[in-house]
Write a structure and sequence with these properties.
Elements (H helix, E strand, L loop, with lengths): L4 E8 L1 E6 L5 E4 L3 E4 L5 E6 L7 E7 L19
Antiparallel strand pairs: 1-4, 1-6, 2-3, 2-5
Length: 79
Amino acid sequence: MHEGFIYAYVLKGSVRSQLYNGEVREYMEGDSWVEEPLVRHTLTENASDTASVKLLVLFIGKEDARLTVPKSDYSDANF
């Protein structure tokens, strides 16, 4: 989880991602996605066993926003 918005763009390779109970999505080179604040990741992984992946990620939040928030800091009831 993050306290700010995440904007991710795949520069190279492909990545699989799942947010909370959503579907598993595969993002290829040139694809992008947005993650809203405080949405839990249930999967983030390189889609390849051999090729590397390179992402450009922008974190947009308040000056004191945490990039990573432990699950224990928030109740699952909100997600």
